Amino acid sequence: MIDQTFAVKKTIKGIAVSPGIIIGKARLVDRSRVKILYQYLITGDQLNRQVERFKEAIRATEEQLTMLKKRMPEQVNQHGFILDSCLMMLKDSMLNEATIQKILNEKINAEWALKKSLEEIRKVFELIDDEYISTRINDVENVTEKILRNLSGEEHESLAEINERVIIVAHDLSPADTTELNINMVMGFITDVGGRTSHTAIMAQALEIPAVVGLETATDFVADGDLLIVDGNTGDVIINPDDSDIIHYQEKQLQHEEYKSSIARKSHLPAITLDGRRIAVKGNIEFLEEVAAVKENGGDGIGLFRTEFLYLKSKGLPSEEELFQDYREMAEIISPDPVTIRTLDLGGDKFASDLEIAREMNPALGLRAIRFCLKEPKIFKSQLRAILRASIYGKVQLMFPMISGLQEILDAKEIVAEVKDELDSKKIEYDRDIAMGIMIEVPSAVTMAEVLAQHVDFFSIGTNDLIQYGLAIDRINEHVAYMYQPFHPAILRMIRHVVNAAKDAGIGVSLCGEMAGDPLCVAVLLGLGIEELSMNARAIPLVKKIIRSISVEEARAEFEKVMRLHTADEVRAHISDQMKRLVPELEEKGYLDA
Length: 594
Ligand code: PEP
Ligand code: MG
Description:
By secondary structure, the chain is α/β, with parallel strands linked by helices. Helices cover 46% and strands 13% of the residues. The strands form two sheets. The protein has an eight-stranded mixed beta sheet. It has an eight-stranded parallel beta sheet with strand order 15-14-13-12-11-10-9-16. It is globular.
């Protein structure tokens, strides 16, 4: 029982980063920094011992982070790059080599040397006049903290062990902490630090738990066991609420849940706009087990099956038979809806340890995707055979990633023709009319879209890479993440060009990047003329609901206005206003994060 007799009510406000309302007991977790009590001078052999201690602590930290990454909950494993960036920091020379040099040159203990390195890094970050980048120092501090804990042998309480329903209250949570959260127990969390773009915020959204960050002094006011109300839609947190607050928020909570379930209940209705246009809303998946989620959420098929998983998982290459069984099952389960199987997109940020892809300076610009497959026809053919063989078990479409020009399409189609001949000679059946399409995700393919459209059956616009290559923003580099702007007018113009080219040639065009599942983007994409969207399964119900609430004609008229704007911020603000007007409840329910 919580003794609230003397509890003092207090309301604080922070930044709402993940929607939903929770009422529950606070669990204060101590993420205070390790205190470095000793700084001492070291002499003789002991210096090498300090270097060894430091290296061991780095190794231990690396192992812990790698283990956390392996155990990441499924909902957040697409955010594994967050832990990768922590792992990269361990190798950073300003942290790693600089500390070793300090131990040796200044003859000081490892803890003290590490602290000095952190101070130097902090000074560099202070010079950066950009909020997003300067706040990334928190990530460096979190990593340093882990190394210090390994040096001191002091263990943090593991969040994985929390076994009662609580709301976590912490000064800060590192990305590693959030991957440990047991979401069956943790209702949500609040933190003193953090912002909209912090990794902790991204994780909360992926885990779908309400969160408020940037409260500054929450840990000063909240005691373990206090009753809390956390409103992840507005950023309000009430510590020790009174009865009327509890009743008020229970009602709000109920409304939010009802809204979510009303959307879910209608997810099986077709996505038809107010003016009668049917939009196909499909799911993106990486492995077979995800098909169920697409079906449950009312997806009209699989718009993008990323096939890298089996290659990344296996020791050595998966056999044609293994691939065939996987694709066949996929085609059967989703049937009569279609599945678009994309051929191997390895390289870039997706590496297979067993394939000999040379370590490249710029992997995203290197031997990736179709380039790799055309260089390795044996690997490519084995996958194509598996896809063609599976094509008679449902409605299968074939898609090539990262096409940059016509020659790659011609080369890929020639290999497909060879595989078809081989299957014919062995009297193995396949769908002779299998549709063949390409991802449009490289700017040169956008420019050449009219030509490419003459050679394929459909286009699928991959905005994740199109933004990366079009705006020259490394999609996994958090330092430039703030420039990763789907609403950049250049991106909208590129999409428009591709859609027009596809329509002129009479071929289908869909969009399967993250933009497809963003509630804010739906109207603009419809206004652009997109008639098929493919996204993360959990995004399907809300996107379908939005589609049912708007008319394509109106979206098109709005889109004309949007095209007269010249910066991403202006576009975003305009679209946000437009969505508030078209589907007012989206803002109330915290779905429009403008
Ligand atoms: C894309 O680039 O938008 C896309 C859907 O493909 P991936 O994220 O797998 O590169
Ligand atoms: Mg891509």
